[in-house]
Write a structure and sequence with these properties.
By secondary structure, the chain is an alpha/beta fold. The chain folds into 3 domains: 18-180 and 383-414, no CATH class; 187-358, Rossmann fold (3-Layer(aba) Sandwich), CATH 3.40.50.2000; 441-641, Rossmann fold. The chain is 32% helix and 16% strand. It contains 18 helices and 25 strands. Strands 10-9-8-11-12-13 form a 6-stranded parallel beta sheet, sandwiched between helices. The chain has a 6-stranded mixed beta sheet with strand order 17-16-20-21-25-24, with helices on both faces. It has a 5-stranded parallel beta sheet with strand order 3-2-1-4-5, sandwiched between helices. Helix 2 (105-124) links the parallel strand 4 (80-83) and strand 5. The longest helix has 24 residues, at 356-379. The N and C termini lie far apart (58 Å).
């Protein structure tokens, strides 16, 4: 154990020593499982096992393993240095405030856990293994990837948790980097379900509730709400009714604000509910999932825990979060991933007990993980191979080539991207996100962005300055009940919420030929939201006429555009998109004049709302079919944001 000063434990055991690197110092259920699992499955005595994290210490939950700050790792040589798991393989800045004041700061904390860990092994001795960590995005060609490749070459064993992570490493198809399901799938071997039943019952008793016959384990996350919290409450209530089960809202990641959201959503439910906003520990979370009728939520390790105990599970996440699909693909269960709560609620058949083929897939994955544990145990007793020895020598030479005073493992910082100075002055006022209520802002992780307003990102919901500016206009429009009767939105966009409307249709951002997918012909919408979609279609006029024909007489069509600073003339198909098959049009100020020719019978208002936090402006067009609705807009607070289209060449 560690003492109050985080001093390393004495290594008095006679066996081999293991060091594990990851984020084990923040209250996030999944990450905190890895030290317990690895130590148990390798059979390592506590005195010979150390876990290292950016900050170190012991999280508040009773049954977590204490970890040490990573800057102390080189003081305690290990025989095996294990990297991961978790989504830790990246070298970008983190918004977690817990890491801002650590030795390597927000930028270097995650890089220390794999680049630093590899150099610690080279400097102090010992072998390197990867415990199926993940990558959230690709490693670009450059110094970080070069050092990563050198550490992989020196690793006795390398596994990542999905094919996307291997591709992101730049190792597509490389058999030396193997794919292994997240090792938390072996959780039932650590804590058998029968041993957890009493813990689940105690959780209900602790909150003054009788143990129900059935409950459903639910995790809500502000990044994945379909709409506002009231709509989320209605969806959780509908889920509980459908399963005839008591909802149990579990704060799986309090470090991400899950505890506060669980409180707020739970308070909206019209039924008995267990709000586990302050879990006693990891076992209590696992117990309530292991004995639930079903798990539904947005936690990767909530999903994994449910399947580890062979419980039905549905996970809600956006497509860009590749870790969810990557895990489920290995089990042949991709249908258990939904992109919205509304979609998940439509999958009633998947909320019943698992089929035999699904249980068989889980057992096959567990067998692969068991082989992984066996390989790691073997590494503790086998000599280092010649390949590893030579690669370790190259890493030591890399350290020796650093400038004087930087020749140790901490020299990994030399390869990290240089953060460019902010183009705007620091903002001193408190941050409050008008979309999710978040209180923490993070910088844009992209090294460059030619678009306006893609900065000052909310750490809770990833809303940009531009999104929060748009929300100013939406709040005014939705103040009229007539505009909330029926809504249509193209693509998922946090600016608006489906729960605002009595009836609401969402159309995925796919295209048929030159226009957007046509809305239902038999409906007329009070509000149509076409946000950041026109740059993706070939024929803007055809698209707008299609939308105009679907607009109710007294309705509004709201259009937004990704815009480029100082551009006057639209550049057709000017910017490649890594996540799209085509290219994006880069709008200039000429689009504003062109809209009048595209919608000749509509009344147009151009608004320039600003982000309440950074004062960053964006441009919106509000098209109406009637003079009366246009006059209403001109008399509303939107008029204060309106501008003439004359003389705007330098505004974009």
């Amino acid at each position: 154990m560690t003492d109050a000063n985080n001093s390393p434990p004495d290594s008095s055991g006679a066996g081999p020593r293991v060091a594990l690197y990851g984020t084990f110092d923040v209250l996030n259920y999944g990450d905190l499982l890895f030290p317990l699992l690895l130590r148990d499955r390798l059979g390592i005595p506590e005195e010979d096992f150390r876990a290292y994290s950016p900050r170190g210490g012991k999280p508040a939950w009773d049954d977590t393993f204490p970890c040490l700050p990573i800057e102390t790792a080189a003081d305690c040589p290990a025989d095996l240095h294990v990297i991961g798991g978790g989504n830790i393989i990246h070298a970008t800045s983190t918004p977690l405030p817990d890491y801002a004041e650590t030795r390597f700061g927000a930028q270097g904390s995650y890089a220390a856990l794999w680049l630093g860990a590899g150099l610690i092994a080279a400097q102090t001795g010992g072998r390197i293994a990867w415990n199926a960590p993940g990558l959230p995005h690709p490693l670009l060609r450059g110094p970080v990837r070069t050092l990563s490749n050198a550490i992989l070459a020196a690793s006795a064993q390398a596994t990542v948790r999905d094919e996307a992570s291997r591709n992101f490493l730049g190792k597509s198809g490389d058999a030396s980097v193997q794919i292994l399901p997240d090792t938390a799938l072996d959780l039932a071997a650590l804590w058998p379900a029968a041993d957890l039943r009493a813990i689940a019952e105690t959780a209900f008793a602790r909150h003054g509730m009788a143990v129900p016959d059935r409950w459903v384990a639910v995790h809500v996350n502000s990044r994945y709400l379909d709409a506002d919290e009231a709509e989320q409450g209605r969806q959780v209530a509908a889920l509980a009714d459908r399963l005839n089960a008591v909802p149990v809202l579990i704060a799986i990641g309090p470090c991400h604000g899950d505890d506060q959201l669980a409180q707020r959503v739970g308070a909206l439910l019209p039924m008995p509910v267990l709000i586990l906003d302050q879990p006693e520990g990891l076992k209590e979370i696992a117990a309530l999932i292991a004995h639930a009728a079903c798990y539904v939520g947005s936690s990767m390790h909530g999903l994994i825990t449910a399947l580890a105990y062979e419980k039905p599970a549905l996970v809600i996440a956006r497509p860009r979060m590749v870790k969810f699909a990557g895990f489920l693909e290995q089990l042949g269960m991709t249908e258990r991933l939904s992109h919205s709560w509304a979609e998940a609620l439509g999958k009633t058949a998947l909320m019943t007990p698992l089929q035999e083929q699904e249980r068989s897939a889980i057992n096959t994955a567990r067998a692969r993980i068991a082989d992984h544990w066996a390989q790691l145990r073997a590494l503790l007793h086998e000599p280092m191979s010649e390949r590893e020895t030579q690669a370790m020598d190259r890493l030591r030479h890399w350290i020796a080539d650093r400038p004087e005073g930087q020749r140790d493992w901490q020299s990994f910082e030399a390869v990290l991207p240089v953060l460019l100075p902010q183009a705007v002055s620091p903002i001193s006022k408190p941050f409050h996100c008008n979309i999710c209520g978040g209180k923490t802002v993070r910088p844009n992780r992209r090294q460059a962005d030619d678009m306006v307003g893609h900065d000052h990102i909310c750490a809770g919901c990833n809303a940009t300055a531009r999104h929060r500016a748009m929300r100013q206009v939406l709040e005014v429009l939705r103040s009229d009940p007539a505009l909330r009767t029926m809504g249509l939105q193209y693509g998922r966009h946090r600016v608006a919420a489906g729960g605002w409307f009595a009836q609401f249709d969402l159309i995925a951002p796919t295209h048929e030929g030159s226009t957007l997918v046509a809305p239902p012909a038999d409906k007329r919408y009070a509000m149509i939201l076409c946000l950041d979609m026109l740059e993706q279609v070939a024929d803007i006029q055809a698209t707008l006429m299609q939308l105009r024909a679907t607009l109710a007489d007294d309705g509004v069509l709201l259009l937004s555009f990704r815009t480029v600073p100082a551009r006057q003339t639209t550049l057709e198909w000017g910017f490649p998109r890594g996540d799209d098959h085509g290219r994006l049009r880069a709008f200039g100020t000429d689009i504003l004049a062109r809209l009048g020719t595209y919608l000749p019978d509509a009344f147009l208002t151009f608004a320039w709302p600003s982000d309440p936090y950074s004062d960053t402006e964006t441009v919106l067009c509000i098209a109406t079919a009637t003079q009366a609705r246009h006059d209403w807009i001109q008399a509303s607070a939107i008029a204060e944001m309106a501008r003439s289209t004359d003389g705007l060449a330098d505004r974009l």
